[in-house]
Amino acid sequence: MNTINETNFQFQNLKSVYKGKVREVYNINDELLVMIATDRLSAFDVILPRQIPFKGQILNQIATKMMNDTVDIVPNWLIATPDENVAVGHLCEPFKVEMVIRGYLSGHAAREYKLGERVLCGVEMAEGLKENDQFPNPLITPSTKADNGEHDEDISREEILSKGIVSEEDYLVLEDFTRKLFQRGTEIAAKRGLILVDTKYEFGKTKEGKIVLIDEIHTPDSSRYFYADGYKERQENGEIQKQLSKEFVRQWLIENGFQGKDGQQIPEMSDEKVIEISNRYIELYEQITGEAFVKASTENVMNRIEKNVNSFLAN
User: Fold this and answer.
1) Would the pTM count as exceeding 0.85?
2) From the centroid of its chain, how far is CA 146?
3) Are the beta carbons of 142 and 100 closer than 8 angstroms?
């Protein structure tokens, strides 16, 4: 099965290319950004050796749908999606922080809590919580936006402002947008029988100075979901929550001795594991969107993307 690992397109009026962990972003004439969602899989800020079939399409289509479903409350960068793996939007200057918001004690927050930490990114976490308990109110726990190969780092609101990473005026907007998006995402998830546990948002500024949502939103790479049915019973019984997110990949890596730390070997991923992960991504797509996933043709996938993007740019 053809997967997308890396692209090297030469679109007309191409100014530069930025290659992130999963997405590759083409700057067209300092006006547009063509963002291609590859099938690469990253965890613990490391790109894993195997690609996951249809992962890029899934991320792109969920993000597109969620941007369309939230544009009434928060403006975003998106203009069009000329291909299943491609989003085109306004060129923006990204803020150098990721706005992480947590409704529940899960993932990274739970790991820190188990180590005895009660303050995360300058925000206090109450005593007496169990893993996956709901916080009284969602916590915003930002992280730095690391360069490729580097790890994102927790950072507090106070540090962001004191270091001048974001101005106070802009940061208040980012916080407001983050809370509004999380509330809307929570409502959308509830309609699908899911709980939006935590997520991250990225923002940028357009040439006109307008703050907009960029990158992805409410995808399995940026978010964690629990099934709502049985959540309370599982918490009361101390059972593991049934979830849909990339956390199952992280857990598999941890079980195989890898957490992205120096000297650790990435475990080998079998064909069966690759297909299992692909099916889990498809499951999340169908759960969160309420729609059946339609696999795009992967025959000559690079030609397909190039043709569709060139056709859009020509018009």
Assistant:
1) yes
2) 14
3) yes
